Amino acid sequence: TDVAITAKKAIESGVVGKPLVAGVQAMRRRKVPGWGVFTNKALQGGGSLIDYGCHLLDLSLWLLGKDMVPHEVLGKTYNQLSKQPNQINDWGTFDHTKFDVDDHVTSYITFANRASMQ
């Protein structure tokens, strides 16, 4: 995105100091795909982590710079929010009893240079 490119240029040019802490967050409200295999772990392999979490991680690491070497990674996935029946969903209907992929992810990563990302 233009915002990400602008941020990267600001970091690389020295306008912004070397990042020490990165905070990443995304929320998809009422946006469970009601088609395909998105909610089936056996066919999809995972939920929110592989659907868009990987893109947040990639963008964050790109912004932090090439010298970021992970030291420790802690993470947890959850499958609770999607279990509620009769949810309002902007992307069609889905069967909450068969939704078996993660619907929430948290993580904390520390790097060799003592920077961190949450």
From TrEMBL:
Lineage: superkingdom: Bacteria
GFO/IDH/MocA-like oxidoreductase domain residues = 6-116
The identity of this protein, by name, is Gfo/Idh/MocA family oxidoreductase
Q: What is the originating organism of this protein?
A: Staphylococcus pseudintermedius
Could you read off the lineage of the organism from its UniProt record? Bacteria, Bacillati, Bacillota, Bacilli, Bacillales
